[in-house]
Automatic annotation (TrEMBL):
Gene3D superfamilies: 2.40.50.1070, Nucleic acid-binding proteins, Vaccinia Virus protein VP39. SUPFAM superfamilies: S-adenosyl-L-methionine-dependent methyltransferases. One of its GO terms (molecular function) is RNA methyltransferase activity. This is 23S rRNA (Uracil-5-)-methyltransferase RumA. Belongs to the class I-like SAM-binding methyltransferase superfamily. RNA M5U methyltransferase family. One of its GO terms (biological process) is RNA methylation.
Length: 419
């Protein structure tokens, strides 16, 4: 069947006149495809009959198949326009979106799956592992590491799960501090030859960790069995150093993360005498970046390991005015006085717990800086802040992930009583 694509849905898929969503299709395309779910209004793209003027030739030969860059065949200026229009549609206004300084090779982390026939790569639309010889997201060096790893598992006859034990490999590399680490994830049905792989790759990586993933879920996280060399990544943001354990979260676009923190710093506009709460503080990348400009920064983070790490990173950078509390934000704040000059919010994709929202509104901080990778839930949360006496002062979207529909958005809220 032929379909004319007229719009983009919330997940970045092209939407036909009939309301069917197709991955890898863009507005003004005429495509050939078929419906795979009438109930969910989902289709599968097969080929382009007539190219949209928004289309371009992508450098990656897997474009249009690989799930890593579903927008790689969409001109970058149009990607930015779509993202900016999304924020305007949700909030009514925003500053012009900040483009990424690099369209390719911008990530500091990639999670690849092991597949049949010793393949290593990302999944296609049918959940099949594409054997990717060159990925345009991480770096040229990482492609060489993957090629050598592929040869190693082939020569060692290490087959993919469930036939064999191999599940995922995570490559993490410092962009500002040169170092690279690997995390190999397997089932627990056999021994992984970690020492042999280290001998093969120790000239190009600083550490390798082997973990068991016992979950049926397709995830690249597990119980660590053994490490050789570094079991952490070293990176810096705006000259602040961070030690990131192999399985800990960290912003994956280093250069844009630096720009994001600069925006947060501008929005916070600290004078040096403020008390600031950093809720959902993670490994402390935002709180530590603001510490030199505030009197006191208090982070709250559910992940205990990340909380401990944020304190280690504070010590690493000689910051004595940063502290952090481990626990779910909604639980910790029950016995905590949230009265402060400013609050920084960087919650996970589902948004802020309603108890946390209510507690913040009751505490009435003068200003709130809300960072989100999910503008839809951010908009819902901000509606409650508006009901609680806040006003949107500024909105700044930033493109952290070129060639994907993801948007990072920063909103500055000011309490009407302090205006």
């Amino acid at each position: 069947m032929q379909f004319e694509i007229i719009d983009i849905d919330k997940k970045g898929r092209g939407v036909s006149r009939e309301g069917i969503s197709f991955r890898f299709a863009y507005p003004e395309d005429i495509i050939e495809g078929y419906i795979i779910s009438k109930r969910n209004k989902l289709g599968r793209f097969e080929k382009v009959i007539k190219d949209s003027p928004l289309r371009k030739n992508a450098p990656c030969k897997y474009a249009g198949q690989c799930g890593g860059c579903p927008w790689q065949q969409l001109k970058y200026e149009n990607q930015l326009k779509i993202k900016e229009e999304k924020i305007k549609g949700l909030f009514g206004f925003c500053e012009p979106i900040i483009p990424a300084p690099q369209e390719f090779f911008y990530r500091n982390r990639m999670d690849f799956a092991f597949g049949p026939d010793f393949s290593i790569g990302l999944k296609d639309d049918k959940n099949k592992t594409l054997d990717i010889e060159k990925c345009w997201l991480l770096s040229e060096d990482s492609n060489e590491i993957v090629a050598r790893l592929r040869e190693f598992i082939k020569s060692s006859d290490l087959r993919s799960y469930p036939e064999g034990i191999m599940r995922h490999v995570v490559i993490r590399e410092g962009k500002n501090i040169k170092n690279t680490i690997l995390s190999i994830l397997t089932s627990d049905k056999g021994e992984f030859p970690l020492e042999e792989l280290w001998e093969e790759l120790k000239d190009v990586v600083q550490g390798i960790t082997w973990s068991h993933n016992l979950s049926p879920a397709d995830r690249s996280y597990g119980e660590i069995q053994k490490s050789i060399g570094q079991d952490y990544l070293l990176e810096s943001l705006n000259k602040i150093k961070f030690k990131i354990p192999v399985q800990s979260f960290f912003q994956t676009n280093t250069k844009q993360a630096e720009r994001l923190i600069q925006i947060i710093t501008e929005f916070a506009n600290l004078k040096g005498d403020e008390k600031v709460f950093d809720l959902y503080s993670g490994t402390g990348s935002i709180g530590l970046s603001l510490a030199k400009k505030a009197k006191e920064i208090i982070g709250i983070e559910e992940n205990e390991a990340a909380t401990k790490l944020s304190l280690e990173n504070a010590e690493l950078n000689g910051m004595e005015n940063f502290s952090a509390i481990a626990g779910r934000v909604e639980d910790v704040i029950k016995s905590l006085d949230l009265k402060s000059d400013k609050i920084i919010l960087d919650p996970p994709r589902p948004g802020i717990h309603k108890k946390v929202l209510q507690k913040i509104v009751e505490a009435k901080p003068k200003e709130i800086v809300y960072i989100s990778c999910n503008p839809n839930t951010q908009r819902e949360d901000i509606n409650l802040f508006l009901e609680g006496g806040y006003h949107i002062k500024k909105i700044q979207p930033i493109d952290m992930f070129p060639h994907t529909p993801h948007i990072e958005n920063v909103v500055l809220l000011k309490h009407l009583a302090s205006m």
